[in-house]
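Run log, item B.
One chain of 715 residues. Sequence copied directly from the ordering sheet:
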Amino acid sequence: MKRILLILTITALSANIFAQQLSWRFANPRFIRLSGVDHLQFEVQVQCSQAGTYLWASQIKLVFNNTAFNNTASNWTVIRAGVFAGNNTQDNPKYTITKTITGNSPDKIYNIGITGDVNAQGNGGNEDDFGLVPTTWTTLVTVSARFITPVDDDWLAGIDFLESGMNGFQQYITTPNTYVLYQNPNLFDAKEFLTTNSGRLYATNYGWSQIGGSVNGQQHNDWNTSVSTTVWEGTATVTQTNQIAALADNLTVLSGASLNVDALKQLTVAGTLSNNGSFVVGSNAVGTGSLLHNTNNVSGTIQRYVTGNADLDEMAYHFVSVPITTGAVSGLFAGSYLYQFAASTQDWAYIGPGADIPLNTREGFMIYYPAPFTTYEYTGPFYNGPSSLEVSYHSSGTYSGMNLVPNPYPSAIDWNSATGWTKTNILDAIWIWNPALSNYATYGTFIGTNGATQYLPVGQSFFVKAGAAAPVLEVNNNARVHNGQAFFNNPDEGIIRIASITEHSQDEIVVRVRETATEAYDPAEDVEKLFGSPSSPQLYSLSSDDQNLTINTWQYPETTTSIPVHFMQSINGPVTMNISEVSSIPDKYAVLLEDLLTGTFTDLREITTYQFEHDTIFEADRFRLHLQNTLGDDELASGQFRLWSQRERVYFTIPESVGNKVVLKVRDMAGRNILEQEMVLQQLNSFVITRFTGNISVMVVEKEKIHQAKTLILW
């Protein structure tokens, strides 16, 4: 029997009755290795403006200008998907696919023809023989474009729809042997591969994928390799190991897509960052995300998690910054007490209670949140490049030159960066309120206390001090870092770190010793003490000119140095001193802590903890830290009597006579007796002469010898 092939009738309709209009888009792109070669795989999706049309024939034309793709059509795989796959009632494929490549580089055309089975056309439109085009996005075909040459780290796929080659060439079947043209023109989604950074891609169905894989049938992603990256759609997160930077060259977040740099995640974008969707640097109780970038006016959201306390007496304050360039208002801190530091009066000023008060983001702020915790969100353009922070020089009361300034960036900054700062008339010191201790954490001259380091986190503000008029403090991208780097002390210095710990809080000081240093206050080496809550321990040492210091730098002594250490607290009770890092002091120096109240000497090389009872009636001037050179002087090494004084307290050493019983005799220059007592010699010995100013003669009488020397007492 002769088969008669019926010719499908083309129905011509006037333009005013076209209603069925197709829309096209690319979807779910990924890189995958197939047959030992990298492929860019993506879906071509379609939807119709009205329900009820069955696709008869479609012409998909893709222009591509990237010579990295294979120019042979057979090496581009096209697979029917969904309702367009499978067989019809004739047991034939519902659609036949043809593939050709035409044109010349860089404007080659990849032609994909999709045609229904002519043996089923007599059945008219139905679901068993043809694919129903829905009013929601559905995948028509999946395309795999094969690479023939290695692709570098920064490239564009160069693929897009050729709209002129698709408009007027899409058909649907109605009654038997009759088809109708879809409305001309078609609609095309804005997302394309011409300008898409295509070294790494994110799509919801497949997650992250990257060129350079080695296993067939599997995706590959390596955040340690910097490649150009696109978040195509969906919500992507940086999946690199915590506190190890994920690397990207150019980075694009397309419209409708989101990229989250979650807490403890780090992202470095070396090239251009473009955000047309959502970009969030996250924060929670364990930490905050970090972004390094070089592009101006990138908008997104930066979060800052903070703890709080309903008891306002707990002093659970936080120094915060607002790391966006414009649009900052007091409403960002809704539900919080918000303060700024007025440099002109050297005092705090309350901001509020309105929600629309503009905030100068080149200043820092202080907040108190009266509940267990909250997360602030700052949405706007991120800071990038040079930023001039707000500083001035004013004096008021006991303070001068203090300014609260921000870390303006979505990353940490390094106070020690040699090329990241311009500091004119700004001391090398920073102070940050530590709410857990109700005390200041301090960093300066390469060392810190109470947890402070050279790194200032995202959303952190901090005090700096101007030392003279016309100060300047500018920061740039060279100071920006991810804050997971280890911190190392200068190996040419010795450190004695003393922490005073009570039941509820603690404070900490550092005494640093160098070959060259001044014993008087030197802002280049020392950091002033800022006092915290009176109910928290307040520990500080004094320079030779009586400046209260948190970080105090002295010179290694030829003989002995005695450094006053003061302690205050408005609450009585036990206190523990923990002393650490003494091993950094050369072995030839004895390191002793003297309690003036009890007369106790503690060898800090042997014992690193000292406990004492504090009472508010006691003087703050309670301790001395002694560094004694036991080997560096020939006379001392041979047993020479060594005598020195500090105000009314007199110290002496006789190394060869330690443990011997002696008689101590003290006379003024007229020979009058001031003090006489028996004692057993220790490594370091002391006594006090009160209400006396002038020279004294000290005689230490042993069984077979007498040691004698003079010193000056200043009462």
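Observations after the first pass:
- The first strand starts at residue 9 and ends at 10.
- The CA atoms of residues 559 and 629 lie 5 Å apart.
Flagged for discussion on Thursday.
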